Amino acid sequence: MTDDLLERLAETDVPPAPADLDVEVHHRLNRMLLVAHLADLGLRGMMYAVTHFARGVLHLLVLTLTGKVTKQ
Amino acid sequence: VVGRIVETAERTDEQLIAEAARDGSDGPAFALLVGRHRDRVWRICYRLMGDEHDAQDAAQEVFVRLFLHRAKFAGRSRFSTWLHGIAVRTCLTLRRGRSRRRRREGPVDQELLDQRAAAAGAAPGTALDVLTLLDGLDEEDRALLILKYAEGCSHEELADMFDLSISACKMRISRARERLQRKERP
Fold first, then answer.
1. How far apart are CA B140 and CA B175, in angstroms?
2. Smallest Cα distance from A44 to chain B, Å
3. CA-to-CA distance for B95 and B114, rounded, in angstroms?
4. Phi, psi of B85 (to 5 degrees)
């Protein structure tokens, strides 16, 4: 009896795949890649800004403590 | 560009996934792989998820995961088997999430069951019976039986998809059938 029921599983209809499946996948991937690239850009930009300003603060500290102007 | 597309179309899945892994975005190699496998992935997702809306979400998720893991294909099995393994794991994850949500929301809606029966195109009391019986099994056992009997997957393919040995796979199918039989005749 179980065999019969299981065999009948193959007879159940499967509707055709949605026509826009490829397009939806493409859109999802584009959104995902856009977010990932923006996050990457933001992170790298932030790191650049931190490094840039840290250098200025470091020079200020050196000037305050030693009175010497460091040349770049 | 046309030359590249024609050249790409003649390649095997394994060559295309290697090319897709080198691409930074979903270029022609990836698009061709999606086109080649969309119908089979859709069938697996539909069978495992049980309705069209969830199956569409699952199928999209499968191809997104394929894109994210495209560099991980090691060629130990056929590409199609590897992709179907991703499809099975994605559906199992989505189904587990769905059942957790339903447990929180309350008892199963009878109307939903009726809609599922109609969507399955089943003769009353036949396929629905087996689907209801299968719902009582562990998610992995249910997926094993569906893929074996509805999709006609071989033990070798199932073993690759579920990361089991062939003998363990046969054993699990046999035990799942026994459990199903016990549920059928309480």
1. 12
2. 19
3. 19
4. -60, -40
Amino acid B165 reads S
Tell me the pLDDT tens digit for each residue of A41-54.
999 999 999 999 99
State whether B150 and A10 contact (CB < 8 Å).
Answer: yes
Residue found under tokens 């499967």: A14
Spatial distance between the Cα atoms of B94 and B10, rounded to a whole number of angstroms: 34
Q: How many CB atoms lie within 10 A of CB B92?
A: 17
CA distance B99 to B101: 5
**Rounded CA separation B136/B134 (Å):** 5
Contacts with B52 from chain A: Cβ below 8 Å:
15, 18
Whether the Cβ atoms of residue A6 and residue B137 lie closer than 8 Å to each other: no
Substitution target from B60, B68, B83 for chain A, most A beta carbons within 10 A: B60
Q: Which residue's entry shows tokens 């597309």? A: B5
User: Cβ atoms within 10 A of the Cβ of A64, count?
Assistant: 8
| B110, amino acid identity | Q
Please give the DSSP secondary-structure letter assigned to residue B148. Answer: I
Whether the CB-CB separation of B143 and B131 falls below 8 Å is answered with no
ipTM of the complex: 0.70
φ, ψ for residue B169, nearest 5 deg: -65, -45
C-beta of residue B91 within 8 angstroms of C-beta of residue B143: yes
Distance separating alpha carbons of residues B76 and B99, to the nearest angstrom: 33
Contact B149, B133 (CB under 8 A): no
Give per-residue pLDDT as tens, B17-46.
Answer: 998 888 877 788 899 999 999 999 999 999
Specify whether the backbone of A68 is left (phi greater than 0), alpha (psi in -120 to 50) or beta: beta
